[in-house]
Design a protein that fits this description.
Strand order of the largest sheet: 1-3-2
Number of helices: 6
Largest sheet: 3 strands, antiparallel
Order of helices and strands: HHHEHHEEH
Distance between the termini: 11 Å
Low-confidence stretches: none
Helix content: 55-70%
Shape: globular
Number of strands: 3
Oligomer: single chain
């Protein structure tokens, strides 16, 4: 449990990753008509990179860390990967923090 907790907290210790999580909380509000969002599939990683102002490779690193920590879930469709938040991960982390 302790290592998992540290990994989750470390994943949140980056402004770009926090920004991604904020956008994915309500993607329709942040990704306009030029980047259509399917709430069931999530947001394309390329759209996230563009909005963040980083290369797709850099965004991929951030998204990989968030995925490993359990905060986002990837969905591969063809050659693109879509991401959406795992809302239960946040309440689980809050529970773990309260138990410390």
């Amino acid at each position: 449990m302790e290592e998992d907790f540290v990994d989750k907290v470390s994943a949140l210790a980056n402004g770009n990753r926090l920004q991604i999580l904020e956008w994915l909380k309500n993607p329709s509000a942040y990704f306009g008509p030029e980047h259509p969002v399917d709430e069931a599939e999530g947001v394309c990683g390329l759209y996230i990179a563009e909005k963040l102002g980083v290369t797709p490779a850099t965004a991929s690193v951030h998204l990989k860390i968030l995925t490993a920590a359990g905060f986002v879930q990837p969905l591969r469709i063809g050659k693109y990967t879509y991401f959406k938040r795992v809302e239960t991960a946040f309440s689980d982390l809050a529970d773990a923090m309260r138990s410390i």
